[in-house]
Amino acid sequence: MMINSNFEVGIGDLAINMDTLPKSAPFAHELLSNMHKKHRQIMLFWLNGYSTSPMGYGIADVEVIKEDGYVSELRNGYLIDFSVAQCGKLSKHYMTPEQIDLFLKEPLAMKVSVWSKLNDEKLQRDSQQLKSIKLRRGFGWIMEKLGIENPMDSANDD
What's the rounded Cα separation, in Å, for the pair 50 and 122? Predict the structure, then answer.
């Protein structure tokens, strides 16, 4: 992990770290313990109020090589909620005090909330793709691919 030259702090210097979490937030500690090292490091920076961005952006407290990939995995794989600040065309990532508090006190509630948001986004994308296919191929083509000859026969009214 690369740290921006304007920011001189190490993981061990952070107020919230893997040594202090077992006492104050045992479930959050367990979640962080099960994360890959790079994801855990980004989370610890966020939990301490710092922001991250990809290398070379020069807009965040901490710059990380391949940060966008790690952040995507934190949201989609670990179901972590965080905020994004746009700086022109560039963006940096961080956690608000409310997000930090939720992660430390009720991480399962955060996971459920993020899962719900992701599910809604997927449903919206699928719906948009289906509309696009319907416009390009037609409703008959969709019904044919689904194997439905007569829509009335497809109902479970046996």
Answer: 30
Amino acid 83 reads S
Contact between residue 118 and residue 76 where contact means Cβ atoms under 8 Å apart: yes
Query: Residue 61 in contact with residue 7, Cβ under 8 Å?
Result: yes
How far is it, in rounded angstroms, from Cα 156 to Cα 134? 24
Tokens of 42: 């980004």
Name the token pair of 134: 């319907």
Let me know if 156 is exposed, middle or buried by CB neighbors in 10 A (0-12, 13-18, 19+).
exposed
pLDDT, tens digit (0-9, with 9 covering 90-100), for 131-154: 999 999 998 888 888 887 776 665
Q: For 14-29, how does the pLDDT look when each residue is reduced to its tens digit (9 = 90+)?
A: 788 898 888 889 999 9
